[in-house]
Amino acid sequence: MSRAEITALQAALAAEHAAIYGYGVLGARLTGREQQRARAAYDAHRARRDELAALVRDRREDPAAAAPAYELPFPVADRSAARRLAVRLEEGVAAAYADLVAAGAGHIRELAALALQEVAVRAATWRGSSVPFPGITER
Amino acid sequence: MSRRTLLAAGLGLGATPLVASCTREGAEEPPAQPPAPDPDPPVRERAAASVQALIFAYDATASRHPDLAKELASLREEHAAHLAALGAPSTASPSTPAPTTTPAAVPRDPRRARAALVAAETRAAADRVRAAVAAASPDLARLLAAMGACEAAHATLLREGA
Fold this sequence. Notes:
The structure holds two protein chains of two kinds. Chain A is an all-alpha fold.
């Protein structure tokens, strides 16, 4: 595994930590099916976090740690803001996985491409619409 | 396989060195190893053909089911953006192949027509992952992965719109 791959793995792990924190906050602003969806997303991000941390440890490096708290981009006081934050969190993780696709090769690249798909699906569900290039902001 | 691995495989075990000694008169120089072929042009072309087929399927479906046209339009435009990003000619080009889906081939039942697009998007998303892994250029890999992510999202949106 190259240094660039490990750096990108750590960045994706950091993005997952932030998403986990964010979902923990926004879940409280949702009810019913949407709250269930937030819970499922939270669990999916934790699973990916564990997977990425294991890959970093395999290379005898210390996985990036979660911060004790994260600054939210805007207050999350209602359902609408909760949905917007969910979209924003998924977009942040998407960018990190797109970078990991570029930096990685073989099974790491495959993992990143599949993770990017899962993230884009969630973002589209929260947003109610699609974007042409999930994970790539300059297009 | 990476380009480096291909070259290493080409050299093989016990191969003669690339650069022979120049001290002996009449020493035979081994042939230089050819560079590994760039995998990206065919990867790019296959992806462009696949996206072109999706665009034709969307156009045929919208034509056969005008009620769906509005919902399909924005998704169809994203595929056109993918085609442009791959550097492929636009659908207006005379070199465009014949449509792979005509309105007559679209299922009459709008739910089945929708399901056919979901299946096409899902297949395309899976293909993009393989293509990304096969690509040598990191930027092409990233583009293909983003396209696949968009297609996966399309499948979900189409399902939810049912």
